[in-house]
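User: Please predict the structure of the protein below. I'd like the answer in structure-token form so I can feed it into my own downstream comparison script.

Assistant: Understood. Taking the following sequence of 352 residues as input:
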Amino acid sequence: MSENFFININEQTLFKVLNKMLNTDIINADYQATTLHGGTLGDVRLVTGTAITGPGEKLPFSVVLKIQKKWERYADPGSWRREYDLYKSDLGEYFTENFRWPDCYHAEINEAEDEIQLWLQYIDGISGLNLTKEMYENAAYELGRFQGRLYCEKPNLLQKLTNLSDTGYMKKFYHHYRSWPVVYDYIRADNCEIPPHLCQMLINVDENSAEIFNLVEKLPVVFCHRDFWVTNIIYANEKFYLIDWDTTGWGYLGEDIASLIADEADVTSMVEYYYCCVPTYYKGFSEYAGISHFARNYVLEMVLLLFGYRLIEWYLNAGSAAEKNLQLETLQKIYEMGKTALALSHLEDEND
């Protein structure tokens, strides 16, 4: 046995995990653990090694150990343990063959220490900015099908899930940032270095936020991942695996697609991905639930509500000129989405 990290692994638990994962009795194992990228709010390790069976057969293995301590997310106090609650539920039965989460071999909670541990399937695949346009589109489509099925069938499971974020989270999140003088005042200051048209785009959202939320809140309420960005999407063996379910809850149709488009995505392709992923997502959703009575989607507005001020924060906290430019480029692409959408809407009006 070898270890290169400072947390103790309960070997009895490890053997239980390996028994389930390898579908055989394990009597011993050599293993080591390394930190996985991500896991900013939890300790995520890849445990690899060789398991030894009773007859002496040696089986290589890789498994993810995620340890999450209690912490307070704004307006969502139960998020720290939500993945544990979801994995202990029957949610896994409602995924499709092509859209799922990693299998969980063992989940436990230590109430005394406010800590959860999840032993999860390791998925070695394509993620982050390595996802292709086709993968973006297919991920949007599969998400739409998953949400559409739950929306249409309304399984009893959804009534039993009591630890979910609520529909008001996006509004609370927006108003939390809007009330922060550091970002709110900056885009209105004379010494602001962000191009005026980008500042005005955000100011326009502020001035019309009540009307925007009134329109968004008329959309269908769906089961949302709420952290549907490229690093949490892994493509492997022609399947999409979605990780980090701690923000999951009730949101509005298109809320997750706003994250896919704008949350540290491929800036150079944002406009293109917006115009291919949104209709593909709606196509997947409409396979189960009719949405033709909704005149339009509000994904662009949700992008601005969720990421507008956050991009200002990232700009102000950037450690280099390149990082600052990245946030400006992202805001510019969002601006271009809006200009293109406006032009298309005028064209549709002329053709009516």
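That's the full token string. Residues 321-351 form the longest helix (31 residues).
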